[in-house]
Design a protein that fits this description.
The protein is mostly helical and 129 residues long. The protein is built from 5 helices and no strands. It is 87% helix and 0% strand. Keywords: Membrane, Transmembrane, Transmembrane helix.
Length: 129
Amino acid sequence: MIVVGLIFAGIAALVHLYIFYLESLAWESPQARAVFGTGSVEEARATRFLAYNQGFYNLFLAILAALGIIFVAVGHLGVGSALVFAGTGSMLAAALVLFVSSKPHRSAAVKQGLFPLLAVGALAIGLLV
């Protein structure tokens, strides 16, 4: 079950890397505007600094999860698990905040939080068994 949790953590990290790309590197692109519902290029420009910063939060969470996977892979289960829990747990918490605070964004919150939830659950079960 630990391996399953790490696989889900890896997928969660990849999702958050993609979010980083959209928010920090491609915010004004048609793709990012479609994903985040930003109407015009002008609206995107007005919020670019917020998205840029938020994108880096997503990058750092992805790095935490990826480092945790690496540590587990090289035999440091305790450190690696703690890093995976920190990264994916924070991803999950952010998704829950979005879900509770914005009804129109609940679908996005589910997409953002599904793999972190599965990672946390599977890893916890794997460590307890």
